[in-house]
Sequence to fold (113 residues):
Amino acid sequence: MTKVPEEQSEDRAGEKAGAGMRFPVPPGPGAAEYNQISYIFWWILNIVFTLMSLFFLVFGIEILIAAYHLRDPFSFIMCFFSSNFIILISLSLSIAFIWRMILCYRNLKTTRL
Fold:
């Protein structure tokens, strides 16, 4: 059995524990505090992105409703398709951010047991 260098063993342990969501830890004193700040920043960032995508989802729905009050057929078609495009992108991003937070929370829960 070959011996794995210490750097690689930490790297592999981080991959299992983080499931692809590792946070950089600088060497030296204060590394644990840095990792905690990075972890909190990651959660705040994902929550902000989720809220932004939900805002654009509501905005797209409002544009879709407003499109039905237009009298010009060309304007209706343009507003209709643009609102559907906004809804599609914002909904898919919302699902992706929420899914990533759920996976990270489940991983956090299983590693602390």
